[in-house]
Amino acid sequence: MKFNSPLVQSKESAQGSLLDSVDLKLLDLLQHDASLSNLALAERLHLSPPTCLRRVKRLHSEGWIERQVAILSADRLGQHLGHSVCALIEVSLDRQGEEHLQDFEARAVQEGAVQQCWRVSPGPDFILVVQVADMPAYLALTLKLFTQDANVRNVKAFFSLKRAKFTSTWPVPAA
Asked: What is the CATH topology of the domain spanning 74-159?
């Protein structure tokens, strides 16, 4: 990304707008704490509340902000619910035609235990992040997603012992 004042020269949205330095600051604030009120955002950005609200709505409508969520404590919730197995899984398909990739991807993203599904290259075709209650639940998932699919050639699972870092934030440079 190249930054030129006052507009940021980035990819244009479907509506063709560019991000300026205020938009970048707003995105950075929201990705760190989406619970900030419009008044708090406006104050931190030195904007009027109506202007701030218009900008937030525009960023949503143009797709710069996909959604706002609460990020739960995996450790605490996992202990409470018994979701104690987190696996990062490499999946290689036998046939990599677009229709085969889309078929596997569609099945994977429908599974509640699949938290993330990445189509990658080179190496395996997919990386999945999976959270299940225990090893019998992991076995059931592997039977459903991998064993019953004749196109799945290889599956390699890595089981998490400890999550050292997790973030959903993007490094947003100051414009």
From this structure: Alpha-Beta Plaits (3.30.70)
List Cβ neighbours of 64 (8 Å cut-off, separation of 6 or more). 13, 19, 23, 27
List, for residues 49-96, the tens digit of each pLDDT value: 999 999 999 999 999 999 998 888 877 887 888 778 999 999 999 999
In the chain, domain spans: 2-61, 74-159
Q: Given 3-state DSSP classes, what are the helix, strand and coil percentages for the chain, each rounded to the nearest 5?
A: 40, 20, 40
Beta bridge partners of 117: 128
Query: Would you identify the CATH topology of the domain 2-61?
Result: Arc Repressor Mutant, subunit A (1.10.10)
Q: ∠ CA(88), CA(170), CA(77), 5° rounding? A: 50
Report the C-alpha gap between 45 and 83 in whole angstroms.
Answer: 40
Q: How is residue 100 written in tokens?
A: 């085969």
pTM for the whole structure: 0.76
Could you give the CA distance from residue 169 to residue 27 in angstroms, rounded to a whole number? 10
